[in-house]
Write a structure and sequence with these properties.
The protein is of the alpha/beta class. Helices cover about 35% and strands about 20% of the residues.
């Protein structure tokens, strides 16, 4: 049985974008033991797929990242006699670390002069396409079937399921207004300024639907502010719990008629579950983060709330 280590640093959304690559690797080596090395903030990906046998974490965002931290990372790479190590990183340092890992097969992007020397399998790096397809080139370089389209697939395990909605329950639209803390820290504007107007419009136009507002532990402030500004109605609900798990969110999402969100991890979860969604994008390119599919619609953050609510009414 081959021991495989795959390295993909980023948030939960990045790990979901990486799922087609993990699937491709598992199809080549179905009996392998696959370990995913990721950031601590994204470890819940283990609950959303059957392609990962175990996870290890390393805080690549640590400031400052010292020489001893890189030594720790190298120890992780050499902790087991890995037959294959695959990394989505594209810097010369990544190529060097993979070379020092002692793995016989070292897979990465052909993105610098060191990668052509230090890696055994070099993938084409094309950042001007859907990120899931860009990552998949890593699996293709190992022998996975070449593809021109990929779609993340979330496979819920036994401990992560969704409760079925009763036929007599009122259908609902689920809204997640939050964005990641990292985006806020980086000053990336991903906030929609008209959530209150949009929700009030939907409450009026869609009395046969419940409108549910939800969020994670980082979204308390925006949830609280919106709750004050929404016209109180029997078909508006707030479901917010700082102790809620990804399982709770998937339960809500799986049974929704439509999901409205920003460019964030919940969008990628909805994509992986094939849920009908409307995603609002700001400075990022939607073609790089969301695959083309009839269930998925993107709109700009500048869209008028009345225009957006009418689009939603017309497309439910």
């Amino acid at each position: 049985m081959k021991q495989i280590l795959v390295i993909n640093f980023g948030g939960l959304g990045d790990e979901i974008l990486f799922l087609p690559t993990l699937k491709g690797i598992k199809e080549i080596y179905p009996s392998s033991d696959l370990t995913l090395l990721l950031e601590p903030r994204a470890r819940s990906i283990k609950e959303l797929t059957s392609f990962i046998d175990s996870v290890k974490t390393f805080d690549i965002k640590k400031k400052p990242l010292l020489a001893k931290d890189l030594v720790e990372l190298l120890f992780i790479l050499r902790e087991k006699p890995y037959d294959i190590i695959v990394s989505s990183g594209s810097s010369p340092l990544v190529s060097a670390l993979l070379f020092l890992s002692s793995a016989k097969t070292r897979v990465g992007f052909n993105s610098n002069r060191f990668s052509s020397i230090l890696l055994t399998h070099k993938a084409r790096l094309n950042k001007n396409q859907y990120a899931g397809l860009m990552y998949y080139e890593l699996a293709a370089s190992l022998g996975a079937k070449p593809l021109t389209e990929v779609m993340p697939e979330i496979t819920l395990n036994k401990t992560t399921g969704s409760k079925s909605r009763r036929s007599d329950e009122q259908p609902y639209i689920l809204i997640h207004p939050g964005t990641s803390k990292l985006s806020i820290q980086k000053g990336i504007v991903k906030t929609y300024l008209y959530w209150d107007k949009l929700i009030n419009s939907l409450i009026t136009k869609l009395p046969s639907y419940n409108i549910i507002l939800t969020g994670g532990p980082e979204d308390g402030d925006i949830i609280g502010e919106l709750d004050k500004d929404i016209v109180k109605s029997n078909n508006f609900k707030v479901i917010y719990d700082t102790n809620a798990t990804i399982t709770n969110f998937i339960d809500l999402l799986s049974n929704s008629a439509l999901f409205i969100c920003l460019d964030s991890a919940p969008m990628h979860i909805a994509c992986g579950l094939r849920k009908k969604l409307v995603a609002l994008f700001g400075p990022t390119d939607p073609d790089k983060l969301l695959p083309k599919h009839p269930l998925f619609t993107t709109k700009p953050l500048s869209i008028d709330p009345d225009e957006l609510s009418q689009f939603i009414v017309d497309n439910l």
